[in-house]
Amino acid sequence: MASKFTELAIDCADPRGLARFWCSVLDYEVRDEDEGEGIVTIGSPAVPEGRNRPGPVPPTLTFARVPEGKTVKNRLHLDVNPTDRDQGEEVRRLLGLGARHADVGQTGEESWVTLADPEGNEFCVLASRHP
Is residue 107 packed enough to be buried (19+ CB in 10 Å), middle (13-18) or exposed (0-12)? Predict the structure, then answer.
């Protein structure tokens, strides 16, 4: 059997704040918080962790406090798909949560919208692919 993608670790200045943002974006919940270490892990409330599950599982996101700030465009980013509204409505919702538009060299012809979370990590809101 191959490995499964189960977790994405994200360095940040404010793990609790960034976890709140992504919980709202993904309808996740806080799974674990270690204030002393500055680490917060969030995950889907609908699906338990995948250690004993043979199929795909929604990955958890772990936010870890680091002293340095983000300085360049992400080499890895999340793509999200609206599930109950169109792309424009979802972009407006995410902007209301604290996201902002991000310029990473788009041409204006893309079918996705590039945003950045409150700490500047880029992510895309897709229009045509659905889970």
Answer: exposed
**Contact criterion met (CB below 8 Å) for 100 and 94:** no
- For residue range 12-21, list pLDDT tens digits in order: 999 999 999 9
The pTM assigned to this predicted structure is: 0.87
CATH architecture of 7-65: 2-Layer Sandwich (3.30)
Question: CA–CA separation, 65 vs 88, rounded Å?
Answer: 32
39-86 confidence digits (pLDDT tens): 999 999 876 655 566 666 789 999 999 999 888 888 889 999 998 899
Domain positions in the chain are: 7-65, 78-125
**Phi and psi of 16, rounded to 5°?**
-65, -45
β partners of residue 34:
39
